[in-house]
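So, is this right?
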Amino acid sequence: MPLTPEALLAPVNDALGEKIVAHKLALGELTIEVRPSDWVEVAYALRDTPELAFDMLIDLCGVDYSAYKDGAWSGRRFAVVLHLLSVARNHRLRVRTFCDNDDFPMLASLVEVWPAANWFEREAFDLFGIVFEGHPDLRRLLTDYGFIGHPFRKDFPLSGHVEMRYDPELKRVIYQPVSIEPRELVPRIVREETYGDSGRG
């Protein structure tokens, strides 16, 4: 029988102690926040503590909080979030940390802890510009080789900076300034704070 998010908090607290900066029970899952300096040590503890046994990294993603709550956010800009699963014990955990430097966000790589972090960290580097120190092959994953900028940052223009097309006269792909006018076609949707909450936490 898997632990409920409420019951999971006790063994997580026992394993990590003061390394937990904050925790939250929401949407049926436990989320903990840790310092970036403790990132790798926390990862090993979550994986290797028998009562927790988080042996599978399901996802690692970057987050840009610069426009969060319509700009009312006053904390660090860039965060990295882990989604972990214990296959043996069938419980889940979300772990978040904030990068110390907003101008050059950097965090230690978790590839040695969970090899699956490799592509996820490359994706977060590509889309958010978060550098993962110690990553064995940190290069862009989804954008073009010559791409400039990080398209999931909130200050990146929706239309981008350049467009590319095939030029039949030159017989090659060329880059040129964006030729479309920037516009917003999708209305902003505001949801209640508890949207999607199943009532379990």
Summary: The helical segments are 5-16, 39-48, 117-128. The beta strands are 20-26, 29-34, 56-64, 78-86, 91-98, 106-108, 131-133, 162-167, 172-177.
